[in-house]
Amino acid sequence: MDRQPREEKRCRHLRNKGMYIDVEPDPEVPSMSDGFCWCAHTQNCLGPDGDAVCKEDCGTQRNCFEAV
Predict the structure, then answer these.
(1) Is position 62 within any domain?
(2) Overall domain count for the chain
(3) Which of 46, 48, 35, 37 is nearest to 14 (CA)?
(4) Alpha-carbon distance 4 to 11, whole Å?
(5) How far apart are the first and last CA of the chain?
(6) Strand pairing partners for 15?
(7) Separation CA 56–CA 47 (nearest Å)
(8) Spatial distance between the Cα atoms of 21 and 16, rounded to a whole number of angstroms
(9) So what's the pLDDT on residue 44?
C-alpha cells in the first residue's frame, strides 16, 4: 500500500516563534511552544480579514489565505 503524506494547507503568512529556532528537537526537553501565532501580513494576532490567527483556522476557508 503506497501512502502519500497528508498535504497540509498552511497559509504563507502564518508565523510562530518555533520557526525561528534553528536546532533539532530534543525528545528529552519539553516543548517551549506557547502556541502563539501571528500574521506576517498584518504583524499581529489578527489576520487581514479581522479574525484571530491560529494554526487550526488559517486555512483555505479564509479569504486572506495564501498557500505556501
Answers:
(1) yes
(2) 1
(3) 37
(4) 21
(5) 28
(6) 38
(7) 13
(8) 10
(9) 95
Q: Does residue 27 sit within a domain?
A: no
Pick the closest to residue 7 from 65, 62, 60, 63 (CA basis): 60
How do the pLDDT tens digits run along the chain, 68 residues long? 455 445 568 899 999 988 887 888 788 887 766 778 999 999 999 999 999 999 889 999 999 999 98
The pTM (predicted TM-score) of the whole model is: 0.71
Strand partners, 62: none
Nearest to 55 by CA among 38, 30, 41, 31: 38
Secondary structure tally for the chain: helices H, strands E: 0, 2
Q: What is the pLDDT of residue 3?
A: 53
C-alpha grid cell, residue 36: 502563539
Look up the domain containing 14 and give its range.
Answer: 9-19+35-68
